[in-house]
Amino acid sequence: MMTALPEKIRLLDVHIGGERRGELLHQSQLLFKYLRDDPTQPAVGLLMPPTRLLYQSNSLFPVMDQNLPEGYLFQRIRESYPKQPLTAMHLLALAGENGIGRLGFHLPGIDRPQPIRPLSRTELLRTKFGPKVFESLVQAYLSTGIGIAGVQPKIMVPDRATLPVPNLIVKTGSESYPGLAANEYLCLSAARRAGIETPGFDLSDDGQLLLVDRFDLDENGMRLGFEDVASLMGLCVRDTLSDRKYQGSYEMMADSLKMIGLSAHDLSRFFEQVAITVMVRNGDGHLKNFGVLYRSASDIRLAPFYDVVTTAIYRYTRYAGGPELEDRTLALRLFRKSHSKAYPLPEELLRFGRAICGVKHAEVVLQRIAEAMSKALKAADFDERIPRYVLAEIRPVWENGMAYASQ
To answer: Are strands 103-106 and 11-16 parallel, antiparallel or unpaired?
Structure first.
C-alpha cells in the first residue's frame, strides 16, 4: 500500500547511510542544510561536501534528482495518486531509504512503512511470465521500488529480510521493446566475459524477466554513495521533456571523472564501458548510465557497467503516426568537438582510449571485447531462455561490432 502524503511538503529529513544528517527545505528555493558543523561527516554528494553547512538551488540538487522515477514507474505512481500534485519532494518522500546510493528521505513525524515480504531469487527465476505477472509484482512492491530511475518497466524487490533496502532490480520488456530482458542479459554476459565488472544478474527460466543485483551495497549490506555522471556534471535530467541526459560527449564524461580524482585504472575501465557500448550498438548509453561509487571523497571508484542493451534491433518513431526508424546513433558524441553521434570508426574509438582515457594498448581491449561477444553468442545458441528471434536480430549487429577488433 502506498504511503499517504500531505498536499504540500516543505521539509524532509535527509539520511546518509541510515543516519539523519540534514534537512531538505522547499521555500522560495530548495535548501539543504547539514545538521552538524562537522567537515568529516559523510557528504550528501560529491559536489555538496560538509565543508559548507547550507546549499541552495532553484531546482532539486542533482544527487537527489538522479533517482527520481521516470517513464513506467512514474506513470504507475501517478495512477496511485490521481488527484494529488506530485512534486520532487513528494517523490523523494515515496522513495524513502530505497534509492540507489546511501541517501534516504523521510517526512518528520511519519512512521516508516512496514517491511514487505521478501521474494526469493529462485522463486522469481522460476516464475512463468504472463500479462499479469509483472503487474502483480509492481502492485506488491511499488512502495519499495520507486527509488530507481529509467524508462524501462522495472521494480525493486527484497529477497532477504536482513537487508535494510530491497536488493534486487527486476526488469522486463514491453510491446515496443520485445525480448528486452534477454537482450540486456546477452549484453551483460558479453561484458562479464570481457572482464568488465557488472552487477550480479540472471535471466528467468522463460527469458522474460531480468534480475539485477543492486551494486551500491557492499559485502556486509552497507550502502555506498552513488552518483551518475549527470549528477557529477551538476545536471538535473529527470524532466521527461528534457533531453539533457543526451547532451554532451563521452570525452566530457571522462573529464568529469578526472575532476573528481578517478584513478587511471578506473579511467581505463571507463574506456572498456564506452568501447562495449559502441560494439554492441547500445544507442542509449547516456549520462545517467555511467556512474561512480564512493565511501568518501578520497575513496571513489567507477560503478559496474549497467543498463546496456543492443538498441539497434528496435524501431522507433519520432512522433505519433510517423515512420519507423532504426536506431543508428550513439546517445552522445564521442569527442567534445564531434559534430555527430554516429558510431565512430575503429581508429576514432582507439584514439579515444589512448588520448582521453590513457589506455596504451586500446586495441587489446577491443580484441578482448570482440572475443567475449563471440563467446556470448555461441553460449546463447544453447540457452533455451534466449528467444530465437532476439538472437537472430542481435547476431548480425554484433558481428559488425566485433569487426572493430580486426581493423
So the answer is: antiparallel
**For residue 341, with 0-12 CB atoms within 10 Å meaning exposed, 13-18 middle and 19 or more buried, which class applies?**
middle
Neighbours of 33 (CB within 10 A): 14
3-class SS shares of the chain: helix, strand, coil, % to 5: 35, 15, 50
Task: Give the model confidence (pLDDT) of 105-135 as tens digits.
Answer: 999 987 766 667 788 889 889 988 776 778 8
Q: What percent of the chain has pLDDT over 70?
A: 92
Residue among 25, 23, 27, 26 at smallest CA distance from 15: 23
Q: Name the nearest CA neighbour of 8 among 94, 90, 64.
A: 90
**Alpha-carbon span 166 to 157, nearest angstrom:** 5
C-alpha cell belonging to residue 239: 524532466
Q: Is 116 helix (H, G, I), strand (E, B) or coil?
A: coil
Cα–Cα distance list, 235 to 25, 61, 229, 239, 301 (Å): 20, 8, 9, 11, 20
What are 300-310's pLDDT values in tens digits?
999 999 999 99
Q: Is 2 helix (H, G, I), strand (E, B) or coil?
A: coil
Work out the number of other CB atoms within 10 angstroms of the CB of residue 175. Answer: 5
Q: Strand, helix or coil at 405?
A: helix
β-bridge partners, 299:
296
Q: Which H helix or E strand runs over 226?
A: strand 225-228
**Given this model, what pLDDT does residue 215 score?**
95
| Residue 30, helix vs strand vs coil | strand
Residue showing cell 547539514: 34
Q: Using 50 as the pLDDT threshold, list the residues of the chain that sit under it.
A: 241, 319
Burial call 224-260: b when 16+ CB within 10 Å, e when fewer: bbbbbbbbbbebbbbeeeeebbbbbbbbbbbebbbee
